[in-house]
Amino acid sequence: MLLYHRRDDKKKMKDKLKSNSKMTFSQFIKEFIQKNEVENQKLSHLNEPIKTIQLESLRRETSIEKRRLSDLFSVMTVLNICTKICSQCYQWNSIDNIHNALIDIGIKLEKKAIRMPFEKLFETGPSPPIGELTTKIIEVFVYFGERKMSLTLIAKLLAPNRERVKKVLRRVYLTSYFLEQFDIISHGEERGIYQFNLDLNEISREVYQNLQNQPSHEFTILNLLNRVDDTYINSQRMQRQFLLKMFFIHPDEFHRRVVNMNFHPFFLREKLT
């Protein structure tokens, strides 16, 4: 009976796509998420195993390019909406996993930031995959705490050199499209400006609280604090935004006074003023 309903759902989706040639990829994504959320809740209620989603089968059912489906699943894997279990096989988790996925990305970035110079922190290859760019775009918003950011600026941060900025920017736009489908970011009123839709203060607070609870000499300042409050978060944010402006507006001065002296971002504002 259960198998019959699965086939029936597939047939309905295929028929709908065929009958509605104007159905956009965005509409498909939203309906696909809803369908899998409902189906997984039913399977969980029945104590049935979660079904495996096969990319090639989905391509045949929907007639959507495999490349586009692959990009979609790369993004969903980063957000822990699904898990890759074999070459082209995925298991659905939950759309509710997004928040914790962002926290994990923030924690890993803070640890990396201690050991890595700023100009290498967000750098990607010349043609970064969509999954990597998903992580990087989230990292930039969370690290600097900027609710609105220019995708061009993000591409400049990510590109390994100036010659690669345009190519990286095209892929940043593509990745941003996918992040929009999950309401993580949205297009602002100005061209090329996107805003982060989730609470950056809450995310930062949870990131720092997690780091505070981890036994590591690298986070002694956090460990000395009784609690991570908005004052601490805003202080970090101001220092990092100052660093970002210095990096773009006065790059030569940035490299002379910051990179060569290996200052940690936490102390930058005091050292540079």
From TrEMBL:
One example of a Gene Ontology biological process annotation: regulation of DNA-templated transcription
Residue ranges occupied by any E2F/DP family winged-helix DNA-binding domain in the UniProt entry: 20-94
Entry GO terms, CC: transcription regulator complex
Superkingdom field: Eukaryota
Protein name as annotated: E2F/DP family winged-helix DNA-binding domain-containing protein
Protein's organism: Tritrichomonas foetus
